[in-house]
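Sample intake sheet
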Amino acid sequence: MVVSPTTGPMKILGIESSCDETAAAVVEDGSRILSSVVASQFDAHGKYGGVVPELASREHLRAIVPVVREALEKAGCGYADLSAVAVTYGPGLVGSLLVGMTYGKAIALSYDLPLIGVNHIEGHIHAVISQNPVELPSLALIVSGGHTHLFEIREGLHYRLLGKTRDDAAGEAYDKVAKLLGFGYPGGPVLDRLAAYGDPGKVKFTLANMKGNRLDFSFSGLKTAVLRWTEARDITAEVEARKALFRENPRPTTQQWLERTPQATRDLIASFQSTVIRELLRRAQSSAEQTGARSVIISGGVACNSGLRRDAPAKLGRIPVYFPEPSLSTDNAAMIAAAAFPKLARGEFAGLDLKAEANLALAGA
């Protein structure tokens, strides 16, 4: 089976505010993205080394109205042209979710539009299947700062959870290691760039065998191993030099980072990235074989990682591997609107009593 979007001249306004990006988008007929606007909170959170929930909520309140207005303007449509409003209602930070949900509810009520609640993780899946001829059954690896999950996707878009992280998500491990090494926040993209300048075979990491479900993930031990490596070598001076650079310029170039990063640390970074990618793809390959998947989806913020994009096709062999476009990998509202189309076709609407659910599970998984 090839997944095809709902047909018809319909437009859905999507709103996403689950963490630290305020996003709105208009999608037509399930796959045509008429607009996608994202307001990042990088500058607000960078100096704190991570997302501050209360600050995130406040920034969403500032951004939600202009972001939605811009999305509609870029799409060349008004509220009267919409078929529905889709909002993320979980998982995520409750305060952040409430901002987008409340504004979406207000629009739905004011213009008599159906309200559709969308699971953020399902949004990441639709970031791929709305744009690609994904054949089912498929395996979905959702990997980001907050999630590392493996799902089987069956006919009718039914989901079955195969494995998940028991501690840190992969993107969270990236950011914590980057912070430990003095690279600031968000650090994942920086480590990805610098990994190309190191030898991934120089530092050997030994990960414990998983008891119980062998398709589960665990990255906390890897993070601790990096900490032990830094303690054994006392790299305090170079870490402080990188912190000083980040304070002076929150967006250093790769060359500026390299000038403050000795070869041994570059090798550590390359080895860390190689280990994370190996763990992700080893379980994805095993899951694909067990389920007889005809395709593999890799989505979420970490899907932007150059090493993961390079290694996945070779590791998974004959099975087609689909990644979202980089702009659809990180949190965005186009994926939320796209995920709402099948629900619109089935008449699965939410009431104004829809609640934010921080730990929302993917239905059917």
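Comment: Strands lie at 11-16, 21-28, 32-40, 84-90, 115-119, 138-143, 148-154, 158-164, 295-299, 321-322. The radius of gyration is 21 Å.
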